[in-house]
Structures are given as structure tokens and as C-alpha cells.
User: Which sequence fits this backbone?
């Protein structure tokens, strides 16, 4: 596991873009797990800018959805699939046939989860997982508690996540209380994982993720047991951890 600390949000996004671009240059048909949320948006903007300048080409990648609210169709304004399309798939000209959508509007959501996990495995697993860090330590919607072997499944949002979701859709919006998420089992097998973390409000949870106990109560802490994980934080999020700039920390 590696922690890289950037001066600010833009620096964090640039460092993350450098790593993602290098990985896609090496493997143009990479399967990329694509987080939504505010934090990776600067990274996605940079990828699109750098593709437009000819530096990279994401048209061969497979974009895999990380999570979705239950019962929300792709056209719903709250759909995380729609957010992934607008921020990642369309700007990077990824053909629809190379996009894997979590069918949270399926008649049998549990079966849809199993099929999705199976489809990820059949296509060779995840090459690059791009993740944010939830205010409660969730990854995707792997809410606490989530074990390392938690499968792709339907979950109930914690109050923190419901509040965080409300911040995206505006007060008064009807925030779904349930969601689907790719499981910890698949996340922890990704060949490369980039976690972007920004802002002072993430400082405590980042410190706990990196230095607290590895436990289901803080799902992101399981990343310390996985291969090839890079946390990229801005200084506001890293806080005291910033002292260990560019530090390489052994998985614990
Ligand atoms: P954020 O969300 O990037 O909007 O902070 C992160 C998350 O909840 O996973």
C-alpha cells in the first residue's frame, strides 16, 4: 500500500490521472471500476482533457459500474449510472457495448447482483479500481460492517451515506435507502486500486483507514491487505499523514 500526498485537489487529480493513464497505456483493454462521488471528478476531467490532446486513448477500456441506488433506472436524475456516463463514459468515448451497468431496476435485484459479479469474473476481473473513501469508511456501498469476502449485493444505506447522498441531490430530494454495490471480494482482487481522498472532512476517516485496526467496521481498511493499492490524498485530507509524504507503507 502506498500513500501519496498532493498539495491540493488539482495535484491529487493529476497524480491519479498519471497513474491511471500509465496503466491504460500498458493495457488498453483494461476493465476499470468507476466510482462516482465528488472526489474523482477532477481526475475524470483530466483524463478527458488528456485524451483530447492525444496523450491517451480510453476507447478500448471496459467501464464497470461500482454501485447504484436500488430501484433507480438509468434515466433517473439520481442514477449513479447516469453520473458515470456523463463524467467518464461519454467524455472518454467508451462505446456502450463496453459499459457494464448494475441493473438495480431488475425484478430480482439479488439475482442481478450475482449475475453482475459473474460477468466481472468472466471478463477477467478488475484491472483498475478507481475509488473514493466514504465518510464512514465505505467503498462503493460496502457499508460498515462489511467483511473482506462480502459479495456483490443489495445493502441498506447507513445514515451517514444517506446524508452524503442527499448532498448530491439537494435537500428534500427523495434519497433511496437501499443500494447495490460491487462486493469487497471483487474490489480486493483488483490488479491496481487508486483511492482519491480530498478535504479536511475526510482526515479522520483516512487516518483510521491507514492506521486504525483492519476491520469490517471500516471496510476501506481491508485495502491494507490487498495488492497494489495507492491512496492519493490532498494535504487537507492527509493532515499529519502529510509528514510521511510519498511514504511507502507496508500492508499490515
Ligand atoms: P465523495 O464520496 O467523493 O463525494 O466524498 C465518496 C464516497 O462516499 O464514496
Assistant:
Amino acid at each position: 500500500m502506498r500513500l501519496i500526498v498532493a498539495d491540493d485537489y488539482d495535484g491529487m487529480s493529476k497524480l491519479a490521472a498519471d497513474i491511471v493513464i500509465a496503466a491504460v497505456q500498458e493495457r488498453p483493454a483494461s476493465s476499470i471500476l468507476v466510482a462516482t462521488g465528488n472526489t474523482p471528478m477532477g481526475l475524470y476531467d483530466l483524463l478527458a482533457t488528456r485524451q483530447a490532446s492525444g496523450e491517451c486513448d480510453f476507447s478500448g477500456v471496459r467501464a464497470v459500474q461500482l454501485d447504484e441506488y436500488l430501484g433507480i433506472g438509468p434515466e433517473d436524475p439520481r442514477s449513479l449510472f447516469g453520473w458515470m456516463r456523463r463524467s467518464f463514459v461519454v467524455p472518454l468515448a467508451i462505446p456502450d457495448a463496453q459499459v457494464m451497468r448494475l441493473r438495480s431496476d431488475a425484478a430480482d435485484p439479488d439475482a442481478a447482483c450475482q449475475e453482475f459479479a459473474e460477468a466481472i469474473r468472466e471478463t477477467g476481473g478488475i484491472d483498475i479500481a478507481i475509488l473514493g473513501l466514504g465518510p464512514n469508511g465505505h467503498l462503493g456501498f460496502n457499508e460498515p460492517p462489511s467483511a473482506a469476502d462480502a459479495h456483490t449485493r443489495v445493502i441498506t444505506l447507513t445514515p451517514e451515506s444517506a446524508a452524503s447522498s442527499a448532498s448530491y441531490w439537494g435537500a428534500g430530494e427523495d434519497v433511496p435507502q437501499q443500494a447495490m454495490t460491487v462486493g469487497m471480494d471483487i474490489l480486493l482482487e483488483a490488479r491496481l486500486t487508486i483511492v482519491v481522498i480530498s478535504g479536511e472532512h475526510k482526515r479522520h476517516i483516512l487516518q483510521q483507514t491507514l492506521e486504525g485496526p483492519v476491520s469490517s467496521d471500516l471496510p476501506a481498511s481491508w485495502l491494507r491487505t490487498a495488492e497494489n493499492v495507492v491512496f492519493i490524498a490532498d494535504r487537507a485530507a492527509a493532515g499529519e499523514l502529510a509528514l510521511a509524504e510519498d511514504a511507502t507503507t507496508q500492508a499490515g
In short: The pocket of 2-phosphoglycolic acid is lined by residues 37-39, 132, 134, 164 (CB under 6 Å). The longest strand covers residues 192-197. DSSP finds eight helices and ten strands in the chain. The radius of gyration is 17 Å.
